């Protein structure tokens, strides 16, 4: 490498002695500049090959070289794509809308596309209509036969073209009363109720129909019928009440016969013991049970008690008695009554092992007047035990529990000729 002394002197590298200075070599430079090179964009596809000194000139026009957008949009693009950019995507390009013929900068046009009011579009309801976008709203809201619309009567939504058909079924569509009672129309779904309950022209039965009045007339004239027929209606009601009274009695009898005891074992719970006991101290009250039967078609009888005793037991004992009553089947039964009878007062201890219930029983003697065929329901004392159990014993154990005593009267049917 040849160098001139003057240029060495005038150029001192900051690195001084440590630095090896580089000097131009015109010959080598010429040689290098004449060497064949490819365009630096050969990988992108540029086929240019030429001398190195022509490279810069090529790069100024190379289609693959990057340049800034001539519209100053700040994009850097290859020359290759600049035409596309300028025409279609440069935000600073000027575009004319084909529908409205207005000029737009690129950015504004991108927003305008799809919104141009002069663009011809299909109706979104798919009715088949095509029209400028500016007419679309009005068309879809007011003209399109596929638009949805609320039924003015029931407020449900329908496609416009089916609304007509809907009105033949719409439950709220106003229709005239079938009796032509009033110029005002009624919602279809209320016609039945109107005719049944309100229509003044509907033919209705008199309110006393169930008592037997057969009168039928228009509802509006019913008041007059009622006014004119008070006596007649009252008579009908009177008859009806009597008929029902008979039925009630029959029902009561039937109910009684299915609920009363018919197997000779009568269990009798006497509640409110304390209060009834005090009452019997002062009044010596006899408490008589419901009647019951020894068998389904047997003897009718009832039990009775004196809580504070009676006769020889008065003041100290619980007395229990049995009374033979006049029954339905007395005429086919054996007399005198001779079946063994037992009375039991229960010990209500919750442990069955510990219970000590008290039982007394007897067999009636054929001579005793209490067991002859009863002539009528005379209020006479029954037969039994004036000293059944003493008040002292009754207070012990669980004979009285929950302020109640439980008595059982049992007819021994095993010897009966009719059971
Ligand atoms: Zn190139
Ligand atoms: Zn641009
Ligand atoms: Zn436009
Ligand atoms: Zn339409
Ligand atoms: Zn409707
Ligand atoms: Zn009507
Ligand atoms: Zn009537």
TrEMBL record:
Domain of life: Eukaryota
UniProt domain TRAF-type: residue ranges: 58-109, 112-164, 165-222
Keywords: Cytoplasm, Metal-binding, Repeat, Zinc, Zinc-finger
Localization: Cytoplasm
GO terms (BP aspect): regulation of apoptotic process; regulation of canonical NF-kappaB signal transduction; signal transduction
InterPro entries, per the entry: MATH/TRAF_dom, TNF_rcpt-assoc_TRAF_met, TRAF-like, TRAF1-6_MATH_dom, Znf_RING/FYVE/PHD, Znf_TRAF
MATH domain segment(s): 263-411
Main location: cytoplasm
GO terms of molecular function: tumor necrosis factor receptor binding; ubiquitin protein ligase binding; zinc ion binding
Keyword Transport applies: no
Keyword Zinc-finger: yes
Residue intervals of every TRAF-type zinc finger in the record: 58-109, 112-164, 165-222
Coiled coil location: none
SUPFAM superfamilies: TRAF domain-like
A GO cellular component entry from the record: cytoplasm
Protein name, as recorded: TNF receptor-associated factor 4
